[in-house]
Description:
alpha/beta; Rossmann fold; eight-stranded mixed sheet; four-stranded antiparallel sheet; 11 helices; 23% strand
Amino acid sequence: MPKAIPNREEIEIKERFAEHYKALLGKDYDKFIDYSLSFLRRSIRVNTLKISAEEVIRRLGKEWILTEIPWCNIGFWVEHKEGRRDIGNTIEHSLGYIFVQEAASMIPPIVLDPKPGETVLDMCAAPGSKSTQIAAMMQNKGILVCNDYRGDRLKALGINLQRCGVLNAVITLMEGRFFKDVQFDKILVDAPCSGTGTIRKSLKTLRIWNPNMIKRLAGTQKQLISAAFNVLKPGGTLVYSTCSVEPEENEGVIDYLLSTFDNAKLDVINLNIKKSKPITSFQGKNYSKEVEKCLRIWPQDNDTEGFFVAKIRKN
């Protein structure tokens, strides 16, 4: 069990939130809350555009304990031998040798599996953790379009792409739903979401959570995934992901896509990771049995953030 955050007993959990998640999780609700109110393990991803994993281990191993993340062979949980947590203040981070990235956040690019020479879209790219991961997998070959809809978010995106030595990226500023008249081999939609899988990183999620917010976000997510599917080449791959554990934002969005496009098909995701059964029915809504092929991760499954990932193929 991870270390609980200070004064966790003073944190208020809305009655409506508790009822909602008790209905969703049953006997596992308390475990979900325990993990959500505990410290998140620090993790890094090696930027193979600049350095090898072996060299990073050699450089950091004097002060840090590195434990390989099972689903990402260039990802490591890091723990300082004397208790420091500021891995982002190391020279290796400043030089772009590593990216401080949550372990579950590394999954969507791995599932997308971009190849050198392909044309790839990261529709909701800022601040760039997944964009830099995709660029490294592409070996800086091909075209990577990194888009976001807010100009103030592009600053961090641009800085991270430069720091990591990304050379094949084009940054665009627009709402993802307006993409058209272009086609991509592969697309990642890491959609804006409620962040209910990241409570342990942002406690304000407990304060701002409400059903209307979830419904509004699900509407935006449906627009984004539809726009992405329309600009995906036949035979191409679309990965949809969120750091939410809300069915309406996850299985509900995938169910919407499957019912809207006859040529949208889901692929099974096989990773060395503990996962939970996707939600096929909740609060009177039944979703397609196909959503069972998606990857649903609760914080307590792997001591990470909660995450949802779907791999979609365009026939």
